[in-house]
TrEMBL record:
Protein name per UniProt: WD repeat domain 86
Keywords: Repeat, WD repeat
Keyword Transport annotated: no
Cross-referenced PANTHER family: PTHR44489, WD REPEAT DOMAIN 86 (PTHR44489:SF11)
WD repeats: 11-43, 53-92, 93-132, 133-182, 183-224, 225-264, 305-337
């Protein structure tokens, strides 16, 4: 196992914990959203802060970085669009009546989920609500989008999938705003989801310690992945494998098409809070304040990255650098050269975006107590 080398750079400009970290599609910039109510743009070339994004009136829960614009959402019930060159706020999206948990930009639309029990679709250009998706009985935590090219003619406008603390996921027709299917089966809050859009399949993780696969067109539950002993906090879907990170301190790898468990990644001393697959290596972030690199095929632990003081909320990888963002307020850059190369050709990117629950619940309590998320959610 490789040793835990020191960080290449420590960026400690934020005055509060970092809730989310987003990498631009071109890989040139990073965006962090913080408890201090600000977001910051960083250069991946040298790790310097390029711009400070100020304007939110409460903590930033989540962010997404595109090549030409940055998007942030906040506990102040708003979403903001920013110019990535100047840091100027270009648009404020108002309409939610409680904390905005998650945003997703796709097909020139902005999707959002909120504690107000709704999800919404917005026009990116006009900043106006185009659709409201109402039907969940509790807060909407996470969401994913399947674009029109992947869908049948009946749902040509694409589908939005949402997960909620009401123990359901819902599939919505974006064009009409109507609920297409309700995915029932979980007995606890749906904390995370990941989508295989071409295969019309959603994978959901829950406080009931299971991962479930669903056909989003028919609403049928396809299979249940049972072996975790704690809440499933984060999911990653890569090359027909599902990786699930849990409060039981493990990551499990499953065959997406059969539900068979093929591998368990151990060594974590607390809940697994973040996952990222990159070039044959599975990177994890944990409530024990450490990031780890595993050989994705063998499950062997290759390296431990030590230096953060609190839970790691999000991780990204670009080139030969690992980026970790923590509730301690620091963004750390780590050299990942020297890790064993993959044994077989790996996909250039995962089938879908990573949707984990970290960063959705910024609260004043110690974020290292990830295992208590379930109890808090179910009392909302």
């Amino acid at each position: 196992m490789g040793g835990g080398g020191s960080a290449l750079r420590v960026c400690a400009d934020h005055r509060g914990g970092i809730n989310w970290l987003s990498l631009s599609p071109d890989g040139q910039r990073l965006l962090t959203g913080s408890e201090d109510g600000t977001a910051r743009l960083w250069s991946t070339a040298d790790g310097t802060c390029c711009a400070l994004l100020q304007g939110h009136e409460s903590y930033v829960t989540f962010c997404q970085l595109e090549d030409e614009a940055a998007f942030t959402c906040s506990a102040d019930c708003t979403i903001r669009k920013w110019d990535v060159l100047t840091g100027q706020c270009l648009q404020v999206f108002r309409g939610h009546t409680s904390i905005v948990n998650r945003i997703l930009v796709a097909d020139n639309q902005l999707f959002s989920s909120s504690y107000d029990r709704t999800a919404r679709a917005w026009s990116v250009d006009r900043g106006q609500v185009a659709r409201e998706f109402r039907g969940h009985r509790n807060c909407v935590l996470t969401l994913a989008y399947a674009g029109a090219p992947c869908m049948e003619e009946a749902v040509a406008g694409g589908l939005l999938v949402t997960g909620s603390t009401d123990a359901t996921a819902k599939v919505w027709q974006v064009a009409s705003g109507c609920c297409h299917q309700t995915l029932r089966g979980h007995t606890g809050a749906v904390l995370c989801l990941v989508l295989d859009a071409p295969g019309h399949t959603a994978f959901t993780g829950s406080t009931d310690a299971t991962v479930r696969a669903w056909d989003i067109l028919s609403g049928q539950q396809l299979r249940v992945f049972r072996e975790h002993q704690g809440s499933v906090i984060c999911l990653e879907l890569v090359n027909r494998h599902v990786y699930s990170g849990s409060a039981d301190r493990t990551v499990k790898c499953w065959l997406a098409d059969t539900g068979e468990r093929v591998r368990t990644f151990t060594a974590h001393r607390h809940s697994v809070s973040a996952l990222k697959y990159h070039a044959g290596t599975l990177f994890t972030g944990s409530g024990d304040a450490r990031a780890r690199a595993f050989d994705a095929q063998s499950g062997a632990l290759r390296r431990v990255f030590r230096g953060h003081a609190f839970v790691i909320n999000c991780i990204q990888v670009h080139g030969q650098v690992l980026y970790t963002a923590s509730h301690d307020g620091a963004l750390r850059l780590w050299d990942v050269r020297g890790l064993p190369p993959p044994r077989a050709a790996a996909p250039k990117r995962s089938l879908s975006r990573l949707f984990s629950n970290k960063g959705i619940f910024p609260m004043p309590w110690d974020r290292t107590q990830v295992v208590h998320i379930a109890g808090r959610l179910l009392t909302l």
